[in-house]
Amino acid sequence: MPDPVPVQPELSGDAGPSADVARLRRRLAREHRIRLEAEEIAEKTITRLYDADQLKNVFLATISHELRTPLTSIVGFTSLLLEAADQIDDEQRHDMLQRIDRNAHVLISLIEDLLQFSTLEQQNGALDPEAISLRPLALAVVGQLGPTLDQQTIDVAIPDGIVVLADEQGLVRVLTNLLTNASRYAPAGTVVTLGARLDEGRCVLTVDDEGPGVPEDERALVFERFFRGRGDWVTKTHGTGIGLAVVQRLVDAMGGEIEVADAPGGGARFTVTLPAAPPSSSA
Fold first, then answer.
1. Does the model's pTM come out above 0.85?
2. How far is CA 249 from CA 35, 109, 134, in A?
């Protein structure tokens, strides 16, 4: 009989215990990498939730204070008018009613900012623009703000004929918040200037005040929600830090840009750039 032919074992690149060890090492390395990635995701999630919780606490504390301040004034002057009406002369009564009216407008503005901010946080996409004649709208906003802007003069330096593409209510809120912010930090008796010009198909809107200005290292932060600056002058004024955040979100939604710099005569200049309407458009 012929001798049997020996059968050789089938080879597959790696063989024996060394192949098992190599596969085990690769699997352990992969599992270690996955575990590290999972830990990183978990850590970021915890940090985000903690930051959100801290932000909520700041929000509640800020809003509680800002609501309480004008409400206390309104209740106090109203009680005084009711309880001591026969001891108050006409001039004092008029002054108290003006204070009540001013604080009521502060409350209304705060509530509108909160509602607008909440809407913008939940809303995705741009606002629907329309052609708006800028000067009449600006004059109407200044007229409505009269009770709260009695410490400064508002100079509306906007020429006739400028038509901007914007959401009307959004633009009203932008002007309201920028003028309110300027008057809040500008000294009594100074001028807040609201100007506008056309530049290559864009409308450049500016609000200048004669206040302390915005430090350069805070200019990237002033549009963040609840940020109010670190200067001594900030602690002497009321505010939630929501108004400018609302402005930026509205400007973004209308396809525009906003920035802050030094005003030519000192103070702060806020510049909003929005699309201008084509020459054939009419507001």
1. no
2. 38, 17, 20
Question: In degrees rounded to 5, what are phi and psi of residue 156?
Answer: -90, 95
Higher pLDDT, 241 or 80: 80
Residue type, position 150, single letter: D
Q: Are 222 and 260 in contact (CB under 8 A)?
A: yes
Domains and CATH numbers, the chain: 47-122 (1.10.287.130), 130-275 (3.30.565.10)
CA 83/CA 62 separation, integer angstroms: 32
Q: Give every strand in the sheet of 191-199, ordered side by side.
A: 153-157, 191-199, 202-208, 268-275, 257-262
How many CA atoms are closer than 13 Å to the CA of 87, on its beta-carbon side?
5
Q: Which residues contact 138 (CB under 8 A, 6 or more apart)?
A: 156, 158, 175, 194, 196
Strands 202-208 and 130-133 turn out to be: unpaired
Amino acid symbol at 176: T
pLDDT in tens, 215-260: 887 788 787 776 666 655 555 555 556 788 889 989 998 999 999 9
- Assigned token pair, 159: 């020429």
The residue that leads in pLDDT, 52 or 46, is 46
Q: Which of 109, 186, 132 is nearest to 154 (CA)?
A: 186
Residue 42 has pLDDT above 70, yes or no: no
Per DSSP, the residues of 134-180 read HHHHHHHHHHHTGGG-TTSEEEEE--TT-EEEE-HHHHHHHHHHHHH
**Cβ neighbours of residue 136 under 8 Å, at least 6 residues apart?**
none
89 vs 84: CA distance, rounded Å = 10
Residue 25 CA: distances (Å) to CA of 17, 31, 113, 249: 12, 10, 58, 51
State the Cα–Cα distance between residues 125 and 127, nearest whole angstrom.
7
Condensed to tens digits (0 to 9), the pLDDT of residues 112-128 reads 777 766 676 666 656 78
